[in-house]
Specification:
11 helices, seven-stranded mixed β-sheet, 2 domains, 24% helix, binds NADP nicotinamide-adenine-dinucleotide phosphate, binds zinc ion, alpha/beta, Quinone Oxidoreductase, Chain A, domain 1, six-stranded parallel β-sheet, 27% strand, Rossmann fold
């Protein structure tokens, strides 16, 4: 075991603070990674504060990890020492069920092993610890290759914000000729706009923040719709083939459902909490509209997304923070004051 520096929340009401964790000795199939950068996802806040009710403490958050391979187990063939690699939201799955067979490990029927806050059945049922730490040891199958032409710190958020928006856009076959709305311009939303634009769709940023309109256009949005403007929402009714909803809290989805065309789908990736108010089923029935959900993406699809980003030069817009400022970063995220993803410089853990 190797003891490494990390930051952890010890309870739902505690701030994140320095904490030492043990990383396992690499098994023959493991890759030991020196973490360079780790993105800060809104899920890290939900989990550190037990807002979803299933957090196991202590929580060392972080599932947007990029780093360099420090050592590899004797049977590792996919990665070598010195490679630039990444780890996203999951570090294991049963590898036997239908979902794992279909490269959809995120829907593993036995339950995926999350990068943090999960029990790890193949490794003594230990609690997993994430990327707010100096090093991580992961089975080679769950380690991704990072295109070397990209700005390294700005690739970290691709591992969650990137794949979480890429996967539904691909699943619902978003492309030319379609109008796509991305709801919420935060970490996920800004990647959703970039990807939907790169896939050839007409993109509308749907936001509560009029002040973000110029940024939304710079990110690739063709139009901006202010969701708090009832007149603008009424005029946009029935115009969208697909909506990607990244709002992080329970909310009333009815105003958004009305934006869908016949046969349109709104995919929710943000809120896990109960929605506010009843769903107007009339709007679903009459327009044959769907409301769906999606979680991250599988390993194969995550690699495809990273390769696409390498080819199209797509990265996240990031603000680098030192680990000692993580609690302030959380406070700012809750005020929607980040453009558009905080990324931890993990060198600050070594101080
Ligand atoms: P974020 O950076 O904080 O962005 C969320 C954005 O949503 C805000 O910038 C704001 O955008 C909008 N928003 C916030 N509160 C709102 C409200 N009450 N009503 C309407 N809009 C509101 O968060 P994120 O990291 O993108 O994560 C978004 C959510 O996705 C979180 O709940 C996170 O846990 C979840 N998530 C899910 C998955 C998955 O696999 N399904 C993966 C990662 C994250 P505007 O200012 O533009 O309105
Ligand atoms: Zn995340």
């Amino acid at each position: 075991m190797t003891s490494v520096a990390a930051y952890a929340a010890q309870s739902a009401t505690a701030k994140l603070a320095p904490f030492k964790i043990d990383r396992r000795e690499p098994t023959p199939h493991d890759v030991n990674i020196d973490i360079l950068y780790c993105g800060v996802c809104h899920s890290d806040i939900h989990m550190s504060r037990n807002e979803w009710g299933f957090s196991l403490f202590p929580i060392v958050p972080g599932h947007e990890i990029v780093g360099r391979v420090k050592s590899v187990g004797s049977k590792v063939t996919l990665h070598k020492v010195g490679d630039l690699v990444a780890v996203g939201c999951l570090v294991d799955s049963c590898q036997q069920c239908g979902s794992c067979h279909d490269h959809l490990e995120q829907y593993c029927e036995g339950g995926m092993v999350g990068t943090y806050g999960s029990r790890d059945p193949k490794h003594n049922n230990d609690l997993t610890f994430g990327g707010y730490s100096e090093e991580v040891v992961v089975d080679e199958k769950f380690v991704l290759r990072v295109p070397t032409n990209l700005d390294v710190k700005a690739t970290a958020p691709l591992l969650c914000a990137g794949i979480t928006t890429w996967s539904p856009l691909r699943h619902w076959k978003v492309g030319p000729g379609q109008t796509v709305g991305v709801i919420g311009l935060g970490g996920l939303g800004h990647m959703g706009v970039k990807f939907a634009h790169a896939l050839g769709a007409k993109v509308v940023m749907i936001t509560t923040s009029p002040s973000k309109a110029d940024d939304a256009r710079a990110l690739g949005a063709d139009e901006v719709l202010i969701s708090s403007d009832p007149e603008a929402m009424k005029n946009a009714a029935g115009k969208f083939h697909f909506l990607l909803n990244t709002i992080p809290v329970g909310h009333d989805i009815n105003p958004y459902v009305s934006l869908l065309k016949r046969d349109g789908t709104m995919c929710i990736v943000g809120a896990l909490d109960p929605l506010k108010g009843a769903i107007n089923t009339g709007a679903l029935v009459v327009g044959r509209r769907s409301v769906a959900g999606s979680i991250i993406g599988g390993i194969k699809e995550t690699q495809e997304m990273l390769d696409f980003c390498g080819e199209h030069n797509i990265v996240s817009d990031v603000e680098l923070v030192n680990i000692e400022n993580i609690n302030t970063a959380y406070d700012r995220m809750l005020k929607s004051d980040v453009k558009y993803r905080f990324v931890i410089d993990n060198a600050s853990l070594k101080k």
